[in-house]
Amino acid sequence: MRLPEQVRAQGLPDDPLKVISYFGPSMGMFFVLFTVGFAARGYFVEQQQGTLDRIAAAPVGRGALLIGKSVSTFVYSLAGLATVTLVSWLAFDAQWADPLGVAALSVAMAVSVVCLTALVIALVRTEQQAQGLASILVFALVLLGGNFVFASGTTPLIRRLALFTPNGWALRGFTDLGTGVRGWDAVGAPLLGIAVFSAAVTALTVLLLRLRRTS
Amino acid sequence: MTALAVTRATLTRVLRDRTALFFMVLLPVAIIVVIGVTVSGFDKFRIGLVSSPQAGPVAQELATELQHAPGLRTRTYDTAADARTALRRAELDAVVVVPSGLDAQVRAGRSVTVPVLVEPSGSAGHSAVTSVSAVVAGHAARLQAAHFARDETGGSFDGAFALAHDAERASSPIAVRAETVNGQSDYLPLGYSYSTPTMLVLFVFINALAGGAAIVQTRRTGVYARALAAPVAARTLVFGETVAYLALALLQSLLIVGIGALAFDVAWGDPLAAGALIAVWALVGTGAGVLAGAVFRTPEQVHAIGPALGIGMGMLGGCMWPLALVPGWLRAAGHSVPHAWAVDAWTTLLSRNGDLSAIMRDLAVLGGFAVVLLSCASLALRHRLTAGSGM
Description:
The complex is a heterodimer. Chain A starts with a strand and ends with a helix. In chain A, helix 2 crosses helix 5 (99-123), helix 5 packs parallel to helix 9 and helix 6 (127-145) packs parallel to helix 8 (166-178). Chain A has helices at 19-33, 35-49, 51-57, 62-92, 99-123, 127-145, 156-162, 166-178, 183-214; one strand at 5-11. Chain A is mostly helical. By secondary structure, chain B is mainly alpha-helical. Helix content of chain B is 68%, strand content 6%. Chain B has 15 helices and 4 strands. In chain B, helix 10 packs antiparallel against helix 15 and helix 11 runs parallel beside helix 15 (360-387). Chain B is elongated. The two termini of chain B are 23 Å apart. Classes of the chains: A mainly alpha, B mainly alpha. At the A-B interface, strand 1, helix 2, helix 6, helix 7 and helix 8 of A face helix 2, helix 4, strand 4, helix 6 and helix 12 of B.
């Protein structure tokens, strides 16, 4: 006898998310975020040793110095992320639907690392303070962003909080790329989210530097 | 007395460092909360429910029953597309789409198919379908009874459906109760009872390791060299530092145990066995921290390598996920680090109600790690202080 209501299971056509496709970039971002501490500490070490003063004495504009420092942090971060994603792909068979999307997310994350480094430098005055603040910032971001735990397995509240972090947005992008979504559909919102975060951090940094100059 | 003065100075310096306090208390507690929330509720399937707001009373009743089913954690979505996206991202185990014309079909006596979307390659989705099927079958049985009553009495469907409800309430249902006898789990209990002991293991070790930076800094600033110029033996300095780091490791452990018990209701098992495990693990961490302070040349090296090493060993040793889940070779490799033995011991205490004798093997191995690390640390630091004029 047939019941009035019957259940029928239907499989989704999407690619299943592989653990390595999520935790590969997740761990890459976690360790790349430590660059914030290294770079900020390096700035204060150079300041203490007079390196920055000597560069300033040369015919080098402040803009060029700033860009040089930022580019080095950017390249270091991007190299770290690229290494982890490549190893995850080649050695552990991680799968993302769109290599360009992976590249775009990595570049966006590297930019946010540069912005966070500038914020830490603007906020503190010593090497020790830079180390301490950067460590706290990094662990707060990875904790909220879902680098320690699989974001999809957490509560909706924690998933929402993750979207206040650049790494949380990037991991959402990697999750979508890992489940077969391509192009702007996968990385559009994450790129915008990371851009908004980076712009907010930059605005705060500029404000802090102006306040420091006037005080 | 001089050793105790060294201990007091180190403790005062660390406890005044707000960053150190963040890593000692706030960060472990924050991670305990996040992981505790994440690994709870595994006994329920995560279901996405898509039901039209204009659904009739029969469809609404089915939706309500799915929302209140004991084995399901149901979240409602406005559109099927949103629910499918959540399923694709593995935020759900299955999506139930209640058909919009369900009421009309059922009233007309036709059979209705309720689609349940799942991830085809995962096992959780198919198990979730079984649980959803049980709820839908229960609802369908009531509809069947209503049809029978209507056919026999000739009244309205709504009246017959209400009658079926009353009859169901008046009947004595047969309850099924699952009970596990003499269960032996290879996993820590879920929720905070999983996250708190594993984070204790992870953070006591990482903090001790990172604390080595302070020893390196003290070496480099010449504090040891000046102390050695006084009639103070190198072994006294080494002993004083070791006791300080042991006290810090024990303090952090007790804080996590206290917060876990009071805020997260974690039962730490046999007190004697738990105390012994905490003490031995604090010795392992102390050995690693003092060794880091002796081996590394700059605080930057400790900051760069220490946390990464601690996290890597924690992952390998089962602090981030149960080693029972990983392949055999990785489980064997995991037991090359002390973390795995500590997590094994906590699993015995918390999941199997073990006592001191049940974790004796784990304690012996951890004791071996502690002896080796503390011996190497003492020798290396003493060598640094005597051979390098305190640097």
